[in-house]
Automatic annotation (TrEMBL):
<protein>
    <submittedName>
        <fullName>Uncharacterized protein</fullName>
    </submittedName>
</protein>
Length: 74
């Protein structure tokens, strides 16, 4: 599909935050939805914060947009 870009939000890292990739390029480590939206904006993608959970453009790896911190072991 022409013009479609692959956005991947990886699992939270052990120290917190989630790596964000667009078309294989790492944009940064997002710690919340606002960070994600800003990274995407800088990459030329306009997605509103309230749209990220349901966007077909974003591949959420493992967990959705509710979790940004590392899983704690008890």
């Amino acid at each position: 599909m022409a013009g479609k870009r692959l956005i991947v939000v990886h699992l939270p890292s052990p120290t917190g935050g989630r790596r964000v990739r667009v078309d294989g390029e790492i944009l940064g480590l997002a710690h919340n939805v606002r960070d994600l939206v800003e990274f995407l904006r800088r990459a030329g993608l306009e997605i509103e914060p309230e749209e990220v959970a349901d966007s077909p453009l974003i591949d959420w790896r493992g967990v959705g947009p509710d979790r940004w911190e590392a899983e704690t072991r008890t």
